[in-house]
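Raw record, unedited: Site-specific DNA-methyltransferase
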Amino acid sequence: MSIDDTEVSNLKKICDEIFGEVNFITIFIWQRAFAPVNMNKFASRNHDFVLCYAKQTDFLSWYGLPRSQEADTRYSNPDNDPRGPWTSGDLSVGPPVPEKIYEIVTPSGRVVYPPKGYCWRVTKERFAELLADNRIWFGKDGDSVPRLKRFLSEVKSTITPLTVWTHQEVSHSQDAKKELKELFEDQSVMDYPKPVKLMKRILELSTRENDIILDFFSGSATTAHAVMQLNAEDGGNRKFIMVQLPEKTDETSDAYKAGYKNICEIGKERIRRAGEKIVQETGKTDLDIGFKVFKLDSSNIKEWDPDFENLERDLFDLQNNIKEDRTKEDLLYEILLKIGLPLTVPIEEIDCRGKTIYNVAYGSVLICLEDEIDLDLVQEMLKHRSEHMPPKVILKESGFMSDAVKTNALQTLKKHGITDVRSV
Ligand SMILES: C[S@@+](CC[C@H](N)C(=O)[O-])C[C@H]1O[C@@H](n2cnc3c(N)ncnc32)[C@H](O)[C@@H]1O
């Protein structure tokens, strides 16, 4: 969670209560600006706080940041060690432990001891092993105080992040506005977007290949942009779920004038444009930039809430139990949710003489929500059933041509071993 100093103390207390103090990881400081604003009387704030909590610290997947090439340049290979580039570290530590104080003879014949108040990092026996393994460095001339070789190939490939994140590393808010403008024909469609780099760093620290990233205040969908960008860079297959209220844009704003009446519309278009841009820039045409959009709504199925004074009318009204203003797709996705399938499950639309059959998850669920369902349609559904398991079949209750057709359909399905037939 990103917040400034007005509310950070309250947010920290709320989060400690919700997540538990033990699950507090840290507060990162994001340098969101660099030039002072002299209008501000007392201080020109140029940082935000990024509060970081784990659901449960013990189980937190935390990956650190990729080691930059800059860090790697500290490694070299002056003695042509076959294990590759290395750097050397101090062999002495304090406070001293008596059994770790002993003499070492350098190749040049000089006798050395640890400095006063220190001892060697390892025991005499361990030192002998390290020396035999060519892991001790006495300098080019063989006369210097011994140091321990640390090979690049053996150090962690990631580094632990510092808590201060500078704008050079993760961009500032001006950059963020600029990168969003570039996607929207120079229109400023969102007031305070986050930089893609900032979001990418958070993702690098806490996610890997197949993780799902949820941002429930997604705004202009910077998080989705960063997910696609990072996938393109490291070959990952992370997925995102963005949630945003259809908060109206101000009628005087650039966003409104450009046709985006609410923030969801901005987010959706951002995802489309960012996806295309990343594919273009990286040439990775197989990058998954697809997404589905869902709006939260009440059920598509009418409630049974009869008015007992008008029972006859209400009963007739419920003959068709699907709300009039809803589409077949609306109903399809409600069914998927109700039977516990993810909304990303593969769905094939089969056209049968102008009527649609949904083949869900490779024939394991077959759904038809048409009116005038007849036996031909049922036969067509059978053709697509999974070979591996008897499918679930879901049909629209009021869709059957007649009761006789319904009875026949059920019998036909049963003959083929399909007994899990439901109607909506
Ligand atoms: C500042 S935006 C996020 C910006 C985003 N990081 C970006 O880069 O574009 C936060 C969004 O959260 C939404 N929001 C704020 N409070 C909310 C609440 N209580 N429930 C749901 N949404 C909320 C607002 O609609 C707002 O658009």
